[in-house]
Specification:
The structure is a homotrimer. In chain A, the strands form 2 sheets. In chain A, strands 8, 9, 10, 11, 12, 13, 14 and 15 form an 8-stranded antiparallel sheet that branches. In chain A, strands 2-1-3-5-4-6-7 form a 7-stranded mixed sheet, with helices on both faces. By secondary structure, chain A is α+β, with helices and mostly antiparallel strands.
Chain lengths: ~260, ~260, ~260
């Protein structure tokens, strides 16, 4: 089986950056296969990267190497993290935090094997340092020769804000993400019961459904997103546009 | 030869959705190769998906599996369609209609092999149901063990509106699509003769050419698009912007 | 090792164009691997394509075939260019010019093997002519049977404007490109010393740094881009937006 390297970045698609990451990998590991999760993480936004990684990782085969290239903080050292099933190659900036809640880190290595780095011009450690290391890792299937093990406690981690209980089955939540369809994805994880109502920007949404059947175009309702979060949807339309709401907006959910 | 799965969706590229479809496929069929036709079909727009599929399929090798993920209607059951040269995996919502005019369906199977579905969280049958079935199909090269054969007549199909003859060699047509370059692609299929003029939004275009040579930047002319449709082009510019016209706009063509 | 074909085009991602280029390649050369450098070169913009190719090529393995599909001039004949390490397949419109300054052309072949062309409908020689030739080239690893050698002097080439010395260590430069992050990349190649100041649209930028550490969000500074050009950056923000400057803007650099 060919080794998989799944890439997540904020590099966008208009430049040559994402393409050259792939070139660097193929130079080192011609048999590795590169899959692009997305290159449109919000620029410099580690939280957005952490969310998309959490929502994506479980759909990849055991052994996949996640190369996470969102890097606002140049003081965050490059690391390899191994979990039971996967590897991460990333700056130590917290980007694995949300994935690790479900798939805990087992070991962390500060990358030291700088002889593998691309002697490219300029600065661009995502491509010049992390990409060739991910490619070497796909060949070696072990981080031992690529870095120095550090304490798990040195791995930077953060948590998302939890929904705030308001009493009487009501919760104050936030919009974590607006997806391509304009669905407003909240920080409330579905636990078997859908809210009976939601309130956002002064608008009350009073329908909820676990399927998209039977709605009219533009009709607002509450449902569960593909990764099990409560979301506000406008059928065949953008809830974000209809409700003029975006990431960070407050949503009240009533159960 | 590695089996090819060509994916067409309205998932966009900013989220993890398209990437995870690929992950699901590689989990089931590590040797399959995934090619992205586009993930930017207009959201929920089966007609747009059907057009792009019609325009794309012929350029893929025999045996390619087209995984078509545009799914506005949750009551459309997931099917596998086999043609002489290809397979389609899609909801039964008509997305193969325009391709089938040239490459007729030979058999249709309602997908029943739900033991192959991804036990993912939330609802997302494109990724959770159709993607793993496409991957199994790439291994089995047969739909027999994945579904139950149904009548060809149960396959949902639609037609595009035909150009309306107005007499004297004139036709009322519509703009089917505006491509990345801003070319306005009509529903008139080239049959050997270019129109001498076109009229759209009150503007008359009176040049036509089968090559782009000899035009000035921004000059409007009539030509044939890469898939043999009559189109209105602005040389090195966007005809859509210049003519303030989009999909669905009426165009008169004069032969 | 599988043969690599790296594609650079202005086809965008919303249509089926880029996907079908890949399909055409796999039909001819099932073992070739296609890497997308970018499909978002500015439409018809050979200079933008030449820049991105120059900035990308060095990160690809020896033997990579660069398929360059930016084609505003239908009178530019399709060619194969071989260099010491790579092949280019492109119209003879100058798109290799900037790469060739570092990786000189060794031979040029006018493509004549039209029996390999796709007998597709309509006109689209990027996909119908250049793509299948690139795929054949990946199998043959030689251009001899695909074209007729022509003089190196017939290869169309251009140069970028050089920074203009103004005396006292000052240079008038231009912005070559605005990348996905909004960084303003100038035509001044870093030669070991960073400018102490830059002036653009009446704004003076008076910090320079070879790392992104220690800046505040939105703070402007001068640095070196990943391909060794002097650039103006706004930390975790878009310098292009902040300075209301784009490609072609004049920048004064003071050393």
């Amino acid at each position: 089986m060919r080794s998989l390297i799944a890439v997540l970045s904020d590099y966008g698609l208009k430049d040559h950056y994402a393409g050259t990451v792939c070139g660097v990998i193929k130079e080192v590991a011609p048999d590795a296969e590169v899959i692009n999760i997305t290159h449109q993480i919000r620029p410099f936004d580690v939280v957005d990267g952490a969310l998309k990684l959490k929502w994506a990782y479980r759909y990849f085969p055991v052994g996949t190497i996640f190369l996470c290239l969102v890097d606002p903080d140049p003081t965050a050292v490059p690391v390899i993290v191994s979990t039971e099933k996967y590897f991460l190659v990333c700056p130590n900036n917290g980007i694995g935090s949300l994935m690790f809640e479900e798939e805990p880190p087992e070991a962390v290595y500060r990358i030291t094997a700088d002889h593998y780095f691309v002697k490219g011009k300029g600065n661009f450690r995502g491509r010049n340092q992390l990409a060739p290391i991910a490619a070497e890792l796909s060949r070696l299937q072990s981080a031992h020769h690529l870095g120095e093990e550090i304490e798990l406690s040195q791995l930077k981690r953060f948590k998302l804000p939890a929904p705030k209980p308001l009493g009487n089955g009501a919760f104050e939540c936030i919009v974590l993400d607006v997806d391509h369809f304009g669905n407003l994805i909240t920080n409330f994880e579905f636990n078997g019961a859908l809210p009976r109502a939601a309130e956002i920007n002064g608008v009350k949404v009073e329908k909820s459904a676990d399927s998209f059947a039977g709605f009219k175009k533009g009709e607002l309702f509450i449902s569960v997103n593909p990764e099990n979060h409560i979301q506000i949807v406008a059928y065949m339309a953008s809830a974000a546009k209809l409700l003029k709401a975006g990431r960070g907006a407050k949503v009240k959910l009533y159960f």
